[in-house]
Amino acid sequence: MTQHGTAWWKSATAYQIYPRSFCDSNGDGIGDIPGIISKLDYLQDLGIGFIWLSPVFASPMVDNGYDISDYRDVAPEFGTLEDLDQLIADAKARGIGIVLDLVVNHTSDQHPWFQDARAARDAPLRDYYIWRDPAPDGGPPNDLQSSFGGPAWTLDPQTGQYYLHLFDRRQPDLNWSNHRVRAEVHDMMNWWYDRGIAGFRMDVIDVIGKEVDRGITTNGPHLHRYLQDMHRATALGRDIVTVGEAWSATPENALLYCGRDRQELSMIFQFSHITQSWDEEHGKWKPKDFDLVALKRVLNEWQAALAHDGWNSLFWSNHDLPRAVSKYGDEGVYREVSAKMLATVLHLMKGTPYIYQGEELGMTNAGFTRIDQYRDVETLNFHALQMAAGVTPEAFLHGACANSRDNARTPMQWTDAPHAGFTTGTPWLEVTANYPTINAAAALADPDSVLAHYRRLAHLRRDLPIIVHGDYLPLAEDHPQVFAYQRRLAGQRLLVVANFSAAEVAFDLPDRAAMRGRCLITNRAARDVAEGRLTLSPYEAFAILS
Ligand code: TEU
Ligand code: CA
């Protein structure tokens, strides 16, 4: 095993916290850092190795903190810098690292840099952002579109030029081709590293190398040079983890980000298993069922691409996506068993698994059916655009109910008390109605809960090198209901079989995969033998080790 092979973040289970919705300590309806500190015992008991904390920095909160106005301070609704230092220290004392969210493709329009830049064409920091003259007809310089709908350019009347924003107009893009911008980011990252954080998750990092005049945003010509410069200036000599959000990444270019000789990132979040179930034309706003064969193909391709170099990050959900059990499992009678099945399949693959807060309880989509229940800027922007384009409110809400980002942002369900024990005040976003049954207190009291299953998986990963380092061999790739694979390390073998359907399924295990051993984990009756024709219960999943 090489040094690279034994990095601490490979045997860790990660946990993502969306601070606004995790735990409110002071009754203002907004989750905060003292609230997170009060739940560290819960997270330690779950067995996690690091927390990815969505942004807690000063922000006008247009995009819940993904619009930062001061990279070196904490938003008052989340607490103080001292609270964050305390969180870093208290987590470290429990063997948990804190990974902060690096949102540097753009700032808030309230950031002092943008305030300076927009004041005049010759402002000292003008070139920190991306400005272009209007097209001859006065319109935007080109037809680049914002991820949140509409043109990616907004005219700033003060100076008569357009500025670029790949997200909301209140999130202007930084000009990464300016070396002063890059140096500012590096300084800021080192300032945080010196405070003891364990790493950074890097927001939309695949767009920083853009060349807007050629219409290139993702995977631009300068991307990897910037990432290598960043690594050299900040990460070198530190034992940290970095994970880049890269919607455009493919198995073909993945190693450019995370290959061992690249000196760029530890791993990336790739999204091809997510987007394969999006509508080709209307994206996520027109819900489509996922196809298990396609899903397996994509995940298996990523396993193959990073089999000997690089590293996968494994996730079903995050703060931008629907709840895992709602999307890939069953919200009804099989909720718990299907949530455990999904966890089993994901956590026993090769890579670092990420649990999104509440997933370990089998939390479900919000399922809001009225537009006034939504708070997410992306949902509200698209709603306005689609209404203007003549889409019916029902059609839009049908899509939002399945895929709006607010589905995963409802408050964490701690207890069966009012507002799920998240707050004593009024939560900023409605609590999901099922909290009296789905909550952490109930899960902690039940040895068979989804939570207990996640805890087992995290502990197995810590104890068994085959889960971390074993080779991955896909099985039954064309089976329409079953996800199965084998892991191998030295003389050991691990078999994982999962039924992705609510029906009983007959599954002929290939002879080469037949197993007799020890049942490591299951959501049904224990099996220690698997050979020949297996009859799998609805959503059954098991793993056998020999
Ligand atoms: O997300 C990137 C991004 O492209 C998403 O907006 C995505 O297109 C959409 O949500 C898919 O459902 C990152 C953050 O994770 C997100 O929360 C931010 O809003 C966005 O960047 C801008 O910072
Ligand atoms: Ca609060």
Report on this structure.
This protein has 546 residues and is α/β, with parallel strands linked by helices. The protein has three domains: 8-105 and 179-454, Glycosidases (TIM Barrel, Alpha-Beta Barrel), CATH 3.20.20.80; 112-164, Oligo-1,6-glucosidase, domain 2, CATH 3.90.400; 471-545, Golgi alpha-mannosidase II (Immunoglobulin-like, Sandwich). Helix content is 27%, strand content 17%. The protein contains 16 helices and 22 strands. Strands 11-10-9-5-2-1-13-12 form an eight-stranded parallel beta sheet. Strands 14-15-16-22-19 form a five-stranded antiparallel beta sheet. Strand 14 (471-475) and strand 15 (482-489) form a beta hairpin. Helix 5 runs parallel beside helix 6 and helix 11 (335-347) packs parallel to helix 15. The longest helix is centred in the middle third of the chain and has 15 residues, at 179-193. The relative contact order is 0.10. The model has no long low-confidence stretch (mean pLDDT 97). The structure holds 1-O-alpha-D-glucopyranosyl-D-fructose (TEU) and calcium ion. Residues 63, 66, 103, 147, 167, 203-204, 245, 247, 284, 319-320, 378, 405 line the site of 1-O-alpha-D-glucopyranosyl-D-fructose.
Offer a quick outline of the entry.
With about 550 residues, this protein is of the alpha/beta class. The chain has 16 helices and 22 strands.
